[in-house]
Amino acid sequence: MRIFFTSRHLVTSLTVATCLTLSQGCKDPLQEQVYSFISTENFYRTASDADGAVVAAYQPFLTADYFANRWFSLGSLLDDQVTIGRNPVFQAVDNFNITADHPFVMNVWQQMYQGINRANTGIQRIPGINMDATRRAALVGECQFIRAYNYFNLVRLFGGVPLTTAEIETVGQTNTPKATKEKVYEQIIADLKEAEKTLPATRAGSEVGRVTKGAAQTMLAEVYLTMERWQEAADKAQEVIKTGQYRLLDDFARVFAADNENNAEIIFSIQFAGPVIGNSMASFAHAFGTDNPNCANGVQVWSVDEKSDMWRNWDDKDARKGVSVYDKITNKAGRVVSVYTTSRPFPAFGKYNAPNEISQDNSPLNPTVYRYSDVLLMYAEAASQAAGSPPAEAYAALNQVRRRGYKVPQTVPAPTVDLSGLSKEAFRQAVIRERSLEFVLEIRRIFDLLRTSQLVPTLTAIGKTVRPGVTLLPIPLSELNSNAALSPSDQNPGY
């Protein structure tokens, strides 16, 4: 398989030549006879080919420039909860001082478009394959979900972006004009509506972890929420709730346990196996002190921003606090030690803890994309915003999540935990704050701040400097230089 890189898209050619080598060694490669040839025209013939095309569309999620590292870093450091140590590349993101040539921006952009192009290939090629019709439609649905998810990330971070739904086979085809945000959202919604019609409700065996109907419905609910289409968001979230397929685990810590992945609360997560296909979460997110079982070179890479509301005002009775962040740990010798042992004496992150995976890029843990608690909180916010005041159903959904956080059974009265009697705006802010506690280090906070226009005031409040009016990331310089359909005027404001 030959891989051709452009500054924007990774264009994959399925042109493979296989040569016959003689026992006495290789002949002159220019004289070598080609005995087999695989092209895009003769590859997409069988059900196995169709499945391979879909697997290829998932693969960018596992790369260092997506969930294995850069996307995880970009999505977390941009918010108010995570801070970084001495690395200037990470510091630029943490301080919202990103330039158009920042490697995270360029690399994440490229991986998202790689996923889009591979999804486009599947959507275009799979319908022509002679195979079981239901299976064929489901595979196309997977590609539609993957395309929608990548465009959803792009439009939220960059605004309007080049929009293509056709397979790109040559470099000359990559010159695509910038579409409006509205057009991008139209495509996202269209893809998800089609995907939810064809995707299976459940997965079994080797397909556990692949997207389902519930995942498409959950993302569609979030898209509607982001667009402030409140009733549609509430209705779609309610569809997921009514299936009864998902539930909150009683123990918050078990949601993220290495021996309990793909549990009943997980709707969609990125499937890592480690160490061959691993990610950097264990090495980035934990305290790395010299007397710490999770240590790497004696430095702490990421830490909690102590000025954040999440850390300063988090109730110690909330069990999620001890799972998500910590300032002490029991080392391998059984002694309780402080994580304040490094040059950045701030609390560390406990979520996604993998004590035996201490080297970089080898954690087998699956980053979560959607959990059932997300559905409940999206429903609570949307149902309240769609009504004149928060309805009882919205309170019930919000309080379900709160009760689990405080380890209160769902069936008993909990007047000290349950919220009630709030105004519409106060209720929404309560939901947003609940999301900040529930989804620490799950790349949810940055998008909540963006969609509620709270990013700038929130970052300003903890001492970060954000240029006025700058809430979008810059279109990568490599894209502007290589895409003839773009001009300098297409760059986002402030860059």
Can you walk through the features of this model?
- The chain has 495 residues and is mainly alpha-helical.
- It has helices spanning 40-43, 47-58, 70-77, 88-94, 103-125, 133-158, 181-198, 213-226, 230-243, 281-285, 309-312, 319-324, 372-386, 392-405, 424-438, 445-451, 455-461, 477-482; strands at 2-5, 10-13, 16-19, 34-38, 82-84, 266-269, 302-304, 325-326, 328-330, 336-338, 348-349, 368-371.
- Among the domains are: 278-365, no CATH class; 369-461, Serine Threonine Protein Phosphatase 5, Tetratricopeptide repeat, CATH 1.25.40.
- It has 18 helices and 12 strands.
- The strands form 6 sheets. It has a two-stranded antiparallel sheet with strand order 1-2. Strands 3-4 form a two-stranded antiparallel ribbon. The chain has a two-stranded antiparallel ribbon with strand order 5-7.
- The longest helix is centred in the N-terminal third of the chain and has 26 residues, at 133-158.
- It is globular, with a radius of gyration of 24 Å.
